[in-house]
């Protein structure tokens, strides 16, 4: 039976022997006669052959297996090590080929060389190549459930570290820089491959797994206040503020200056106090919300017919750039340049020191993220027999349900690394054995299971349970409470609904939803509930006859009904402005919303 052949989803023709055709195609590709990135897939159910060579397909390299033997020999490895051949030579020689998702359907890939049978077509280059780069940076990753491995991979992307060596001359949107980043004691092969030492994003700290006064319940962590004062996880936060001097029709332009008192919209002298004569802030100025960073004036928006001839008369308007609600920082770096349109552009980078505080997010590399619950001075924290106080206390309940065995293994491994002054290899499926690490720890004079006798810092009494304590590479994440803190008493409201604006940037309120309402009801907090639902309270006159919303006539100083005029009784009714808006919208649809009123008791 003839098999249809498609090239990039387009019908090409038929072949009588599908198996022979595919074998011939692969042989030609391995010899270099067919493009190396072209793939072939035989769908046995529909009896179709699909050849793909489009862009955007994910391809991955695999070692070819023939007759139950890998084509990559010891000689190849020796030549690679000596630098006689390269990766490209291996693909040209037909030792390694690239497979896409389609061709992989017809392949049987062995995980390691020992598993190869006569049926196998390929073997993995390395066991860890089934995961991506950040996932491969997770130590002892094969001891984790897949979900935690993915979270651990994602957390590393959010960690604060040394992101670029030229940070001091960059204007990145919102960047963080850790002051004392370290290279991990527990590393994987990928740490060497990716030059992790040049851009580290964490610190090696002492971690104890125990409960302490309930401050590390529910994924909370306890930090050693003394360690924080010595610089643990300290970082700087950078954010740019910029202003562009625009050009307008008629030769008018924005000006960089300290606005004078005749300027329309002049602020107060106190808000301009940090500006120098050129209208730009001086470096190292300590700014708070409302302070002007770049002084700028613009021509008036609307000119009448006379002013168009006499441009010097127009009073300029204030258009300076000031810090918004809740913002603060130190002017760190100022640059004057040009925008894409050729206008003058002033950029000021603000710097803020970020010291770890309650509410900041920390995580290990195993998806064990947590928020700081309290900072305790080292004098009050438990200490080991040798006098070591932990930098961080992690809850024991975080491991049981999540089954992150790698988290526990890292504690032992890094303890060995710290004591033996070496890096411990924990690559995926190729790590140092737990038994060997425990033996080494025992030889170094510690209990092989990683536990130690600890004493209470306050009473000095010996603790009944032995505490699991060791070193671990911890990351500080960019989710800091200082960036997320938001509060509002009174502030701006939306024009349409008269409800508070949304979002932190617009000084917004927090929305009270159905579920939040239910909690107030359950607590019996009636007055708080009423206050929360009063954000858009309005009193509107309602006609008793027609049941429609009336209005106040300014000339006759009387309330009027939209239908009966003065001939109807009107009564003020308190309602939400959003409800009043709904009534208006119903009217616009031709629906008559009749309000029936009763007297209040």
Sum up the structure in keywords.
single chain, 601 residues, alpha+beta, Hypothetical Protein Ta0175, Chain: A, domain 2, Dna-directed Rna Polymerase Ii 140kd Polypeptide, Chain: B, Domain 6, OB fold (Dihydrolipoamide Acetyltransferase, E2P), 5 domains, six-stranded mixed β-barrel, 15 helices, 26% strand
Briefly summarize what is shown.
The protein is of the alpha+beta class and 601 residues long. The longest helix is centred in the C-terminal third of the chain and has 16 residues, at 405-420.
CATH topology of the largest domain: Dna-directed Rna Polymerase Ii 140kd Polypeptide, Chain: B, Domain 6
Query: What's the story with the biggest beta sheet?
Result: 6 strands, mixed, barrel
Shape: extended
Helicity range:
10-25%
Strand order of the largest sheet: 12-26-13-24-23-30
CATH superfamily membership of the largest domain:
DNA-directed RNA polymerase, subunit 2, domain 6
Would you identify the CATH architecture of the largest domain?
Beta Barrel
Q: Structural class, from secondary structure content?
A: alpha+beta
**SS field, number of helical segments:** 15
The figure for the number of domains is 5
Distance between the termini: 89 Å
Counting DSSP E segments of at least 2 residues, the number of strands comes to: 34
**CATH C-level label of the largest domain:** Mainly Beta
The overall pLDDT, averaged over residues, is: 92
Q: Which spans of ≥5 residues are poorly predicted at pLDDT below 50? A: none
Q: Proportion of β residues?
A: 25-35%
């Amino acid at each position: 039976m003839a098999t249809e052949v498609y090239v990039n989803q387009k019908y090409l023709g038929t072949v009588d022997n599908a198996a022979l055709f595919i074998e011939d195609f692969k042989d030609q590709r391995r010899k270099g006669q067919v493009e190396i990135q072209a793939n072939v897939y035989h769908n046995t159910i529909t009896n179709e052959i699909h050849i793909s060579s489009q862009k955007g397909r994910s391809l991955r390299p695999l070692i070819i297996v023939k007759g139950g033997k890998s084509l990559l020999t010891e000689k190849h490895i020796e030549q690679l090590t000596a630098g006689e051949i390269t990766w490209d030579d291996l693909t040209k020689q037909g030792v390694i080929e690239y497979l896409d998702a389609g061709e992989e359907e017809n392949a049987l890939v062995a995980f390691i060389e020992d598993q190869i049978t006569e049926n196998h077509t390929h073997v993995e280059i390395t066991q860890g190549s089934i995961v991506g780069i950040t996932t491969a940076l997770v130590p002892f990753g094969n001891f984790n459930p897949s979900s935690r491995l993915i979270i651990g991979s994602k957390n590393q992307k959010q960690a604060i570290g040394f992101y670029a060596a030229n940070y001091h001359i960059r204007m990145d949107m919102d960047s963080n820089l850790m002051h004392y980043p370290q290279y991990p004691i527990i590393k994987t092969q990928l740490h060497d491959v990716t030059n992790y030492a040049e851009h580290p994003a964490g610190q090696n700290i002492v971690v104890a797994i125990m409960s302490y006064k309930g401050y590390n319940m529910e994924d909370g962590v306890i930090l050693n206040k003394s360690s924080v004062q010595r610089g643990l996880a300290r970082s700087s936060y950078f954010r740019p503020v910029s202003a562009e001097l625009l050009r307008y029709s008629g030769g008018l332009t924005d000006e960089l200056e300290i606005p004078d008192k005749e300027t329309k919209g002049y602020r107060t002298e106190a808000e301009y106090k940090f500006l120098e004569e050129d209208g730009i802030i001086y470096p190292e100025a300590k700014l708070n919300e409302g302070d002007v960073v770049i002084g700028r004036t613009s021509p008036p928006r609307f000119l009448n017919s006379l002013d168009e001839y006499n441009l010097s008369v127009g009073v300029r308007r204030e258009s300076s750039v000031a810090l918004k609600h809740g913002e603060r920082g130190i002017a760190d770096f100022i640059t004057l340049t040009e925008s894409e349109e050729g206008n003058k552009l002033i950029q000021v980078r603000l710097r803020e020191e970020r010291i770890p505080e309650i509410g900041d997010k920390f995580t290990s590399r195993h998806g064990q993220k947590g928020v700081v619950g309290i900072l305790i001075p080292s004098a009050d924290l438990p200490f080991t027999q040798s006098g070591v106080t932990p930098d961080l206390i992690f809850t024991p309940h975080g491991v049981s349900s999540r089954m992150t065995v790698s988290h526990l293994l890292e504690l032992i491994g890094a303890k060995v690394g710290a004591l033996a002054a070496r890096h411990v290899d924990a690559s995926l499926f190729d790590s140092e054995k737990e038994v060997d690490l425990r033996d080494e720890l025992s030889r170094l004079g510690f209990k092989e299971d990683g536990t130690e006798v600890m004493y209470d810092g306050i009473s000095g009494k010996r603790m009944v349970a032995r505490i699991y304590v060791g070193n671990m590479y911890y990351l500080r994440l960019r989710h800091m409470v200082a960036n997320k803190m938001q509060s509002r008493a009174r502030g701006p409201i939306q024009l349409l609904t008269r409800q508070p604006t949304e979002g932190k940037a617009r000084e917004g309120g927090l929305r009270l939803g159905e579920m939040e309402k239910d909690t107030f009801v359950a607590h019996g907090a009636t007055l708080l509930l009423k206050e929360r639902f009063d954000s858009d309270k309005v009193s509107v006159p309602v006609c008793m006859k027609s049941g429609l919303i009336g209005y106040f006539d300014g000339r006759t100083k009387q309330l009027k009904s939209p239908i009966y005029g003065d001939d109807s009784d009107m009564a003020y009714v308190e309602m939400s402005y959003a409800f009043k808006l709904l009534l208006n919208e119903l009217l616009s649809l031709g629906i008559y919303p009749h309000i029936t009123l009763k007297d209040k008791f």
